[in-house]
Design goal:
This protein has 342 residues and is an alpha+beta fold. Helices cover 48% and strands 16% of the residues.
Length: 342
Amino acid sequence: MLRIVVMTVACLAVWSGLHAQEYDRLVAEAEGKYTAGEYAGALDLYGQAFQEGDGSLSDFYNAACTAALAGEPDIAFTYLDKAMAAGVLEKQWLETDQDLAGLQSDPRWDELLATVDARLEALAASFPDARPDGPVVDLPEPRMTGDVSVEEALQGRRSIRAYTDVPLTVSEISQLLWAAYGINKPIEGAPDFLRGGLRTAPSAGALYPLEVYLVARNVTGLAPGIYWYKSETHQLVTLGEGDLWQEVSDAGLNQPHFDTAAAAIVYSAVFERNTRKYGERGRERYVCMDLGHSAENVYLQAFALKIGTCAIGAFSDLALKQAIGMTKEEEPLYIMPVGKIE
């Protein structure tokens, strides 16, 4: 089971909202029954929920796990098919989830895995070789002084998973991205791998394997969409316009952080930048160390701005890669939802 876990317009909104609330209530009750080992009851509640609203990949998947445990393989395979239709179903989940172990002797199991393989291969082949050139947004210059000391930020920093509905400003976004991976020492005529100079986060061999993206949802002065942070010029390059939040939330298994966040910082890595010099040690250690350096910068800068964040590592890799529009050579690493706190 995936756990991390014709009317007037006004009337239509109320009707939709009530159905959404009922769906959420039923799913929550189903999860409670599942946890208590009452699988038949949980399965019935999932069925009621799917009559109230469109199921998500994670809810269909969890319903399939529940059905397998309840001894209902036909229902389990039906829900796995629905999960696959709703998004990117990871093969690793299927092969390692003990809830589904009872299905693995069924002839339909190998057929399911073959279908998943084919879809994942097609998806992997669809990623672009290069990032497209979209409209560029100039970010405000980051501030070099603040009202909060490093010591205060270290003392107060916490992982925060719920945020107020106050929008972030583009200046705050600029500050967070600069803290994450901005240039703090431009170097003219530097080698290509430096990509403009040294950054706010240390990197093994100054190879800077990370790529940083912004998913804007509720940011004053910045249209909703998906952007690539071009650190060498402190700009955002538009990759997708409009409200694309749900796609990212779905990839992140619809964890509660996404309900209230105003934006999200997404990290990926081009591992080859490190492995060509350091071999597998670059993949196994140095890229992860670089990610930790950068993410901690975001935590500290966020605290200084009265912004909350929390690093998320539980997501569908391919679904997130697809939602963001990453290139073939990138591998997603982190999602950091951000939002104002009291």
